């Protein structure tokens, strides 16, 4: 089942169960995907985003909400932080399992070997391989410094 179909089914279920918070989050996801679909119309011949693109959108949404929750907590707005974290929980249901630290290390070593990287100049190619294979499964903000450390 495609990501788009999974999201549609989850939306229908949330409507039937009258789960307002879940429904709201699922509608936000669909809106973000439709925005990307519209943006692609003028640029590409593709009419819909791929599952990999959807995973990227979801990953970005999780990161945004985590940052917002952190800011709300620092500002003493705990009710808003809880709302953001509840949205993160719903979004993460559609993301693949996150890789453990050891699995991330192994993936980095494999990507470096695959590209044949030997200096920091090859970091972009290594990151491209990792993003192609592990979109939604690792935090690339944290992986970047790890790759850089291995290549220096």
Walk me through the topology.
Layout: H1 3-17, H2 20-43, H3 51-74, H4 78-92, H5 101-115, H6 123-134, H7 140-151
Question: What is the structure about, briefly put?
Answer:
The protein is an all-alpha fold and 152 residues long. It has 7 helices and no strands. Helix 1 packs antiparallel against helix 2 and helix 5 (101-115) packs across helix 6.
Tell me what you see in this structure.
- With 152 residues, this protein is mostly helical.
- The chain has helices at 3-17, 20-43, 51-74, 78-92, 101-115, 123-134, 140-151.
- The protein folds into 2 domains: 3-92, Hypothetical Protein Yqey, Chain: A, domain1 (Orthogonal Bundle), CATH 1.10.1510.10; 101-151, Orthogonal Bundle (Arc Repressor Mutant, subunit A), CATH 1.10.10.410.
Can you tag this structure with a few keywords?
Hypothetical Protein Yqey, Chain: A, domain1, Arc Repressor Mutant, subunit A, 2 domains
Q: What is the mean pLDDT?
A: 87
Radius of gyration: 18 Å
Helices and strands, in order, run as HHHHHHH
How many H/I helical runs? 7
Largest sheet: none
From the 3D structure, determine the CATH topology of the largest domain.
Hypothetical Protein Yqey, Chain: A, domain1
The residue fraction in helices comes out at: over 70%
- Helix/sheet category: mainly alpha
β-strand number: 0
**CATH architectural label of the largest domain:** Orthogonal Bundle
How would you name the CATH homologous superfamily of the largest domain? Uncharacterised protein YqeY/AIM41, N-terminal domain
The end-to-end distance, rounded to whole angstroms, is 42 Å
Beta-strand fraction estimate: under 5%
State the domain count: 2
Tell me, briefly, the overall form: globular
Q: Would you state the CATH class of the largest domain? A: Mainly Alpha
Extract low-pLDDT stretches.
none
């Amino acid at each position: 089942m495609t990501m788009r179909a999974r999201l549609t089914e989850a939306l229908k279920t949330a409507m039937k169960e009258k789960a307002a918070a879940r429904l709201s989050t699922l509608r936000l996801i669909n809106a973000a995907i439709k925005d990307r679909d519209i943006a692609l119309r003028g640029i590409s011949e593709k009419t819909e985003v791929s599952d990999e693109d959807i995973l990227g959108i979801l990953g970005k949404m999780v990161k945004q909400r985590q940052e917002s929750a952190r800011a709300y907590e620092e500002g003493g707005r705990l009710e808003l932080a809880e709302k953001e974290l509840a949205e993160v929980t719903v979004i993460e249901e559609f993301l693949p399992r996150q890789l453990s630290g050891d699995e991330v290390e192994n993936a980095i070593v494999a990507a470096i070997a695959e590209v044949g990287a030997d200096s920091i100049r090859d970091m972009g190619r290594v990151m491209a391989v990792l993003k192609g294979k592990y979109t939604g499964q690792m935090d690339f903000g944290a992986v970047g410094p790890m790759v850089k450390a291995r290549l220096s």
